[in-house]
Structure formats: C-alpha cells, structure tokens
Amino acid sequence: MGNITLGRYIPLDSPIHRMDPRAKIGAMIITLIAIFFPAGWIGYGIIFVAVSTVIMLSKLSPVYIWKSMKPMLLMMVFLLVINILVIHTGQVWLKLGPISIYSDAVLQTLYIIVRLLLMIMITTCLTATTKPLDMTLGIEDLLSPFKKIGVPSHEIAMLISIALRFIPDLIDETNRIIKAQESRGVDLKEGKLSERIMAILSLIVPLFVSAFQRADDLANAMEARGYQPGEPRTRYKILKMKGPDWALLLGACLLLAGMIYLAYFA
User: H-type helices in the chain, by residue range?
Assistant: First the structure.
C-alpha cells in the first residue's frame, strides 16, 4: 500500500511546479490521447523521452516514479497470462508442454504494458507537481465553458480534488490499521487463502468507519466556513497563463500530431 503515490503532492521548486495547472492538465489529456494512437515502438519511445524530460524538469526522483508503477506489476503479469491463453497468432516463440507462446501474445502484452506505464508516469507527474487547490481551480476553469449547458463545473472540480486528496490519507489509514491488526496477532501474509481473506475483511470495517468519519469532519468544516454549492464565489488566487505554459501545451499538441503521422502516414 505504501507504494501508491497517486494524489501525493511533492513540494519542490521546479519549472513544472510553477506552471499553470490548466496547462498541465491540458497537456496530460493531449498526451494521454497520443498514447492510444498505434504509432509503434518509435512513437512510444518519443513519448517516453518527452515524459521523462518533463519529470526531470520537475525534479522528481526516479525512485518515486518507480514506486508508482510497482502496484501495477501483478496486473501486468495477469495480462501476459491471459494473452498467452487467448492469442494464438504469429510465430511460436516458446512451448511449455501443451501451452504455446505466440509472438502476437507477447507483443500485444508489451504494447498494453508500455501504455499503462506511460499513463502512470504522466498522472503521477501531474499530481506530484500540482497542489490540490490549484488542481481544483484548473479543472473548474477548464470545465467553465460547459456551465452554459448546466454542467456544475465547480462541484465536479471539488469532487475530483477531494478524491485525489483523500487517496494518500486512506492509504496511510490502511497501513495504520494493518499494523494495529498485526500487533494483535492477525497474520495477513501467511496462512491458508480463506484465513488471509478473513484477515483482509477485518480491515474493511475499520477502514470504512474511518473514511466516513473523515468525510463527516470535512463536511462539517466546509459548512462551518459557509461553503454552499452553486453560489457565486470569489478567488484569492487568479490563474494566468504564461509563456512556459503555452510552450507545454504546444509541445503536447506537436507530440499528438507526430503520433497521428506515425500511425497513419509513416
């Protein structure tokens, strides 16, 4: 659980931290779209270099980025096993008794894994370099044009921000409950499968109680400060796009254009 880094803000002094949250969110969305174009290994290599450059500029540790990927390793192994059992096209690379491993199964799995890793790198960089309040303001501004058709942009931005903010808190609370259960003799790592399932179920009730308590405390705090959804609100911080912000968006658009060219014209 401690390896999950999504939603954690890392206070550093870097050019990426100082950028407008709208530019970072917009660049993330454009880059995520670019990832899903079948641009081949060259395209994925270009995206990896671009994302790695942004991570270096943000001064985030490679170890921190790797920690965000570790929880996905089990899912990647599961994808590989499923593809080996389902996909039977291409050349036979290896035979393990009655099971044959085909080239298309391995390549398809690698494509999915690379896409997942790139998406994790991008989203981790965004949440680690953007304060929760700035994230709320950025999402609200990006959704503001939809107010004309009745979309509650502020409420949606607030929900997303609260969800991202509570992910690290819930992870810390889960770790605290695990340690408390282990101190009482509950073994979560050893024993039969049924015993481990029952041990894990013993975590759910206190975790839900803690989550509801935190939500109730947050609601009371917001009401005490006069928060009313839908009412006009003033801002202490006004977002302004600058040169580096436009450069980031332009770079993301050029990256998307390059992926489209590699996918359909190269």
Answer: 21-35, 40-57, 62-69, 73-86, 103-129, 132-143, 153-183, 193-224, 243-264
